[in-house]
Sequence to fold (222 residues):
Amino acid sequence: MQQLSEKIVPKFYHLIKNQTCVSLILDSSQPGVQAMSNSQLTPGVVPGRLTTEVYAVNFSDVAPPLDHHEARVAADRCYFCYDAPCVTACPTSIDIPLFIRQISTGTPDAAAMTIFNQNILGGICARVCPTENLCEGSCVREAAEGKPVQIGALQRYATDHLMDQGSHPFKRAAPTAKRVAVVGAGPAGLSAAHRLAVKGHEVTLFDARQGGRAQRIRNRDL
Ligand code: SF4
Fold:
């Protein structure tokens, strides 16, 4: 029963969550379903109102990652357009047809480097970018068929594939003895700090915090 619920629940849950944004609650009196330490009616803010299994499902991705086969199929839908409108629409100008081609030819790590060389935050952007208004909204297959190439999901597939290997894809150049202050630890500041550090400069990143104080983030944190 437990094995069955591990397989069936996530699939069933994604079906209903994608359509209705509801949460799933399992009956802990059923065999194979772990008991909860608190009930739905326990007063106050307490943990354990749901089973561990249900917490895992409820906090899983709304858009699940593509597996290898799904990624190859999704990549094969790309026309590799010359003057690709998806690239024009991307604020970071990632070479989208190139990284999709690299996925379709079975080199997802090369695809990840195409992305990271242009946007070191490409793994995060793959999850949070409003792709329906940017690259996917401009995809020629969206205009023709109302179904764009899944650029965001493919970007996530490639970057996850590389990051899951646990090594950092960039190395620092020899120290230049130059020091650079970067003000603001938003995406632009972090990206600039990363690129400067890769070139061997000593970078200090400052970010405003509550009360107007500045928080110094050390170079070794980058
Ligand atoms: S616009 Fe669509 S089909 Fe054309 S290169 Fe971009 S993702 Fe591929």
